[in-house]
Amino acid sequence: MKRLILAVLLALPLAAPTIVMADPGSSCHFHGKKMATESTVLQCASKRKASLIEAGKLEKSWASVQPATIALVDGKKAKEWRVIYQNPTASDSAKSSLYLFFTPPGNFIAANHTGN
Questions:
Q1: What string of H, E and C letters represents the secondary structure of the chain?
Q2: What per-residue confidence (pLDDT) applies to 17?
Q3: pLDDT tens for the 116 residues of the chain, in order
Q4: Which of 67, 70, 81, 85 could pair covalently with 102 via S-S, beta carbons 3.0-4.6 A apart?
């Protein structure tokens, strides 16, 4: 019986969930339904843009680009925050606009160059 208990105790760390480190852009995670302020969404958009640059999904020229507009818009399911960045120096003119979408409380939804 003592050996069984010892075996179980030794096996517990192996069964414990693994600690997962979040990426830098995910520090903006909110619970509840309280509407985020524009400044909170802009901070989260800046962090998300930086993480996209770091991951190589955006050109480095986006680093100094500031938000052009922020608005609460009708999304597919509900209201969403939309932050638009304009980069006239982007190498691909079809990708000169960056759209970041957030839930009303400020959680990241998606990023794209089409606005859809």
A1: CHHHHHHHHHHHHHHCCCCCCCCHHHHCCCCCCCCCCHHHHHHHHHHHHHHHHHCCCCCHHHHHCCEEEEEEEECCCCEEEEEEEECCCCCCHHHCEEEEEECCCCCEEEEECCCC
A2: 46
A3: 666 555 545 554 555 443 333 444 456 889 988 999 999 999 999 999 999 999 999 999 999 999 999 999 998 889 999 999 999 999 999 999 999 999 999 999 999 999 98
A4: 81
**Structure tokens of 9?**
């105790």
Query: In this structure, how many other beta carbons lie within 10 angstroms of the beta carbon of residue 19?
Result: 5
User: Among all chains, which residue has been given the structure tokens 């993480």?
Assistant: 51
Four-CA torsion 42, 36, 98, 49, nearest 10 degrees: 50
pTM score > 0.90 for this model? no
